[in-house]
Amino acid sequence: PRIYLQFGAFRNAQSATELANHINQEVGQLDYHDAHIEPANELFRVQMGPYESRAEALTAAQLIETEPGLKPSLAVR
Fold it and tell me: What are the tens digits of pLDDT across the range 30-54?
């Protein structure tokens, strides 16, 4: 499975794009992954990844939560 950090899911593509841009500005120095939009059904999910392992994703999530204060969740697909 591929492991991602998810920051939100939106019905509006513009809202997802704005969040992805904000995350990339805030987190760009902390993680080598860029936030991107993953369309699924009628939602636009803002995610970073994939990460090599759950441990790597959790480490990144803790760093992102500590520094810019964003709170991602894990997503597996």
Answer: 778 899 999 989 999 999 999 999 9
Q: Say which residue the tokens 């992805």 belong to.
A: 20
Q: In whole angstroms, give the CA distance from residue 56 to residue 31.
A: 11
Q: In what order do the strands lie in the sheet with 35-40?
A: 35-40, 43-51, 3-10, 73-76
CB 70 within 8 A of CB 30: no
**pTM, to two decimals:** 0.89
> For residues 1, 75, 3 and 34, what is the CA-based torsion angle, rounded to 10 degrees?
140
Distance of alpha carbon 42 from alpha carbon 65, whole angstroms: 28
